[in-house]
From TrEMBL:
Leader sequence residues: 1-23
Compartments, record wording: Secreted, Extracellular space, Apoplast
Protein name, as recorded: Protein EXORDIUM-like 2 isoform X1
Native source species: Prunus avium
Keyword list, A-Z: Apoplast, Secreted, Signal
Family statement: Belongs to the EXORDIUM family.
GO CC field: apoplast
Length: 293
């Protein structure tokens, strides 16, 4: 695959063992995502959703609402759309996401243990120009490398279609792929945040999908914006792993908003009254990770 997103790799596990005081003693290196002169995904982009396994209608609606929220014409501060507008600063203008086809694979036709070739095959079942095909696997589907990675993105050989895979980690590794809505497997055992949509697995999917969508439009063919080796790049959001609000440090997501009625934590308002927690994104104008709050 052209690019792999490791949301909870050994790197972040090691960092989680460093407290804020010790971490402050480590000299911070400038964060610069170099542009490698490749094509970016700009303009109207269709996002096709391929659901592998059983998802409830509510779970599907949360994901659809999130994607629709990103390119809303109404983008006030603190909205998911205002978070997404940071991608406009990555050369050549805006990337407007539009929900396209939804394909349900509830019969587990490829089984419940998938490899990379299965994910590519599923993504290839939807033909659409200027599109991102998103494969989402249900909580009872095991994917090769799941938990050491929470999702991936890449492109077809002809570079006509980009694809993403994100797994629902509710039953397999919520302490890695659904943090901060679940206690981490390693590091400080701080109380988890309450998921804004009441579903730890799906709210974790939103975090990982947000990361991968941003990585896909700014580095679709592995020659866009990234830092480090092309085989394991740090991209628009993965370069800011673990930061959701101001004051964040390893093991602490930062200060975020709390819904007074439910106690749920969030930082972005979305479509149909939804609330989401989105990670910080690297801002090319400031060369810094920019959380919404």
């Amino acid at each position: 695959m052209a690019s792999i997103y490791h949301y909870a790799t050994s790197f972040i596990i090691l960092l989680s063992l460093i407290g804020p005081n010790l971490g402050a003693l480590v000299e911070q290196q400038p964060l610069v995502l170099k542009y490698h002169n490749g094509a970016l995904l700009k303009g109207n982009i269709t996002v096709n959703l391929i659901w592998y396994g059983r998802f409830t209608p509510i779970q599907r609606s949360i994901v659809v609402d999130f994607v629709q929220s990103l390119s809303s014409r109404w983008a006030p501060p603190g909205s998911a759309a205002s978070w997404w507008k940071t991608t406009e600063k990555y050369k050549s203008g805006a990337s407007n996401l539009v929900v396209g086809r939804q394909v349900l694979h509830e019969a587990y036709t490829l089984g419940k243990s998938l490899g990379n070739r299965h994910l590519v095959a599923l993504a290839g079942k939807v033909n659409s120009l200027k599109a991102i095909n998103v494969v989402l696997t249900a909580s009872d589907v095991a994917v090769a490398g799941f938990c050491s990675r929470c999702g991936t993105h890449g492109s077809t050989q002809d570079k006509k279609t980009a694809y993403i895979w994100v797994g629902n980690s509710e039953a397999q590794c919520p302490g890695q792929c659904a943090w901060p809505f679940h206690q981490p497997i390693y590091g400080p055992q701080t109380p988890p945040l309450i998921a804004p949509n009441g579903d730890v697995g799906i709210d974790g999917v939103i975090i990982n999908l947000a990361t991968l969508l941003a990585g896909t439009v700014t580095n679709p063919f592995n020659n866009g914006y990234f830092q480090g080796p092309a085989s394991a790049p740090l991209e628009a959001v993965s370069a800011c792993t673990g930061v959701f609000g101001s004051g964040a440090y390893p093991g602490y997501p930062g200060r975020v908003l709390v819904d007074k009625a439910t106690g749920a934590s969030y930082n972005a308002a979305g479509a149909n009254g939804r609330k989401f927690l989105v990670p910080a994104m690297w801002d090319p104008q400031t060369s810094a990770c920019k959380p919404l709050v």
